[in-house]
Amino acid sequence: MAPSKPIMTPSKPLMTQRTLAPWLLAAALAGASTTCSSDPSGPEPAALVGLAGDGQTGLVNEVLPDSLVVRVDDAGGQPVSGVTVTWTVGGGGTLSQSSVTTSADGRAAVQRTLGGTAGQQTTTATVPDLPQMVFTSTAEAGAVPRLIIATQPSSLANGGVALEQQPIVRLENGDGDPLAAGIPVTVSVTGATLSGTTTVESDGYGEVHFSDLVLSGPDGSYYLVFSAPNLAAVQSAAIALSTGSSTGHLVVTTQPSTAVVAGVAFAQQPVVRVEDGNGQPVGAGVDVTASVAGATLAGTATVATDGSGQAHFADLALSGPDGSYNLTFSAPNVPSIQSNSITLSTAVAEGGVWTQPFDWPIVAIHMMLLPDGRVLSIGRTGTPQVWDPADGTFTPVPAPANLFCAGHALLADGRVLVAGGHIKDGFGLPNITLFSSVGNSWSSSTPMARGRWYPTATVMGNGDVAILAGTDQDSVNVTVPEVWSNGSVRQLTGAAKSLAWYPRAWVAPNGSLYEAGPAQKTFFLSLAGTGKWTAGPTRLFGGRNYGSAVMYDDGKILYAGGGLTTNTAEVLDLNQVGSPWKWTSPMAFARRHHNLTVLPTGEVLATGGVAGTTFNDISTGVHAAELWNPQDGHWTTMASNAITRGYHGSSLLLPDGRVLNAGSGGGGGAPNELNAELYSPPYLFKGARPTISSAPTSVGYGASFRILTPDAAAITHVSFIRLGAVTHAFDENQRFQRLAFTADATGLTVKAPSSSNRAPPGHYMVFILNGNDVPSVAKIVQIH
């Protein structure tokens, strides 16, 4: 979300009421009993009740996260419709409407945009002859506009030759939105000569793309400096300049893991490119050798380059004393080069291991795992990016609309459906946009009836997508759900309900949609006909705003954290009709804006979040991961990451069993984290991994399919995990279940799920696990 939901405090109910003397109230009621049926004027307003929205905190000039809501009651406490409520502001700012007529439930609501001065601001609701209702809000100052280097220039440069990787600079306002097009950005250097187009104007995304920069001068390290009017200048990473007198050089294009366990192959193996004196990759067949000082390097230490001049190492492992080491790569007739620092531990990594942060071109607020194993990421600003875990490369994929604060899910055919998008904070687009990993292409589908900002998209058992909640083009709450079905969209006009932003929802085993929060009362939605809501089991804890939830097993939900702020957690089994929510053990740390990610073992990983009592208090960031065991309900504290990831942080399970942790910022008063980290859970340090030799690319419901593996006799579990699609502390797509199987000498015969309500059509990761709970690398399989 944007900073329109920056620093939120819970709304508190208020009530002002006109007091009637007991005899007058009795007389009024008696009169009503004899004249109500013929009195054309209807019931008289007697009370103005504040229901929600008081006591919030937000950023100046931004929309408050929650609507301000009042209800008009008669003397008997019944809602009165058709009453005009007038709204006014104090302290600056605006309202979505200055007057609202109460609906059938007696309610009237507005969206409040705070004024430009920090401090207390008020909103007053008025009904003639009743005491006014005053809502109090606190406005806080936001960040300042700035320059950000979205893509660093090449770390190596040949004198007089254009930089192989040209820099991209982004201009953002204090809220993380792009500044206007046409702002000039100038690049300069000290101690060398910089040629090419050194002043470039920003485009519609607020980005400046340099294309032909060339460095020349003495050999050495240099830094580019980027400047723009009224903004602080920023400096690039170091560039090593060579005059081209050498015959070539080496480039580490993929660094090895930054933390490893003795004797265990690196989770991330290095890739080294050999280039000639002009910076062009050499051909195939050049030997590159890896070595280390002070420790022992195991695995294939000499690898020949491929046709692109790259040497891909595959099985390197370190052993020796605990400490920090660097790999040295060498090749004939070129200078050697060192890797990043690697921390070696001789102890079993019982808490898992985090990598050091690595660059990400945008703040990855939205992340989706694609059927080809790559990751689509979308930010508040900047061009959406596709990241390839195999080689660490990014591919920009410009979208046809601003998709920030949309909902998303993966369709049965593997395309990503994105519902809604961003006009400005609190104001949503009606667009439905589709992304295909085949060709990295976008397309537009039939739009929704109204815009949506902060909706949830849920794939149902028949492949349709239910779209809930959000605010529209006028920042009005959208109460009517919509259903996307193979390109058409219909409204569920019989199921109007006001829901919190990004409701936590799944298709239930009975085929209905189950909405579990963040409000305490939960509901089931039937999509048949015009739709119908029915009450579900009430959760134990109150509002879990920005808590995280996950379907950790077939029809079973874990909901943890949220509010301001709790460490409590609760579970529900939807397989048992009428089953209530039950407590499970609390987390060690209170969290909000965290993520819950189900792992191949069936355990659930909690990452990131903040623990404060305001919307996004970065000073209370939680760095330690936690692992929840569904067998006993206990949490175990794991290793800590380096970056505080609060509001807009995201986590995603990858096919290799690691968890990608990225995002945070782009609103909420937090720094923009243009980086990501990878977490290797403890199961990656418990010995050799089983392997899948082959598996089908698609299976039918209830069908048996073969997985060939040389490790069949050791396999104890087969896990089936839907590809993730995460944003705002909730993965709208991920769900987990075990699959039954039998083993023989050459592999496994596995039974696919029989119900599409328990495994909606689409793509899933299939992991096989041995008796040590060590998973294979997954194969991605489509079920239909």
Write structural notes for this entry.
With 784 residues, the protein is an all-beta fold. Helix content is 2%, strand content 42%. It has one helix and 74 strands. A six-stranded antiparallel β-sheet has the order 39-38-37-36-68-69, with no helix packed on it. Strands 3-11-10-5-7 form a five-stranded mixed β-sheet, with no helix packed on it. It is globular. The relative contact order is 0.09.
| Overall geometry | globular
Helix count, DSSP H or I runs of 4 or more residues: 1
Distance separating the two termini: 33 Å
Number of strands: 74
The strand line-up of the biggest sheet is: 39-38-37-36-68-69
Q: Report Rg.
A: 29 Å
Give structural attributes.
42% strand, 784 residues, 2% helix, disordered N terminus
Quick overview of this protein structure:
By secondary structure, this protein is mainly β.
SSE order and pairing:
Layout: E1 14-17, H1 22-35, E2 47-52, E3 57-59, E4 68-73, E5 84-90, E6 93-95, E7 99-101, E8 107-110, E9 112-114, E10 119-126, E11 133-140, E12 146-151, E13 156-158, E14 168-172, E15 184-189, E16 193-195, E17 199-201, E18 207-209, E19 214-216, E20 220-222, E21 224-228, E22 231-235, E23 239-242, E24 248-254, E25 259-261, E26 271-276, E27 287-292, E28 296-298, E29 302-304, E30 310-312, E31 317-319, E32 323-331, E33 334-345, E34 353-354, E35 358-359, E36 366-369, E37 375-378, E38 385-388, E39 393-396, E40 407-410, E41 416-419, E42 422-424, E43 427-428, E44 432-436, E45 441-445, E46 456-459, E47 465-468, E48 482-485, E49 488-491, E50 505-507, E51 513-515, E52 523-526, E53 532-535, E54 548-553, E55 556-560, E56 569-573, E57 582-584, E58 595-598, E59 604-607, E60 624-628, E61 635-640, E62 649-653, E63 659-663, E64 675-680, E65 698-699, E66 704-708, E67 715-722, E68 725-727, E69 730-731, E70 736-738, E71 741-743, E72 747-751, E73 762-770, E74 779-783
Parallel strand pairs: 3-11, 13-23, 25-33, 65-74
Antiparallel strand pairs: 1-2, 2-4, 4-8, 5-7, 5-10, 6-9, 10-11, 12-14, 14-18, 15-17, 15-21, 16-19, 20-23, 21-22, 24-26, 26-30, 27-29, 27-32, 28-31, 32-33, 34-64, 35-64, 36-37, 36-68, 37-38, 38-39, 40-41, 41-44, 42-43, 44-45, 46-47, 47-48, 48-49, 50-51, 51-52, 52-53, 54-55, 55-56, 56-57, 58-59, ...
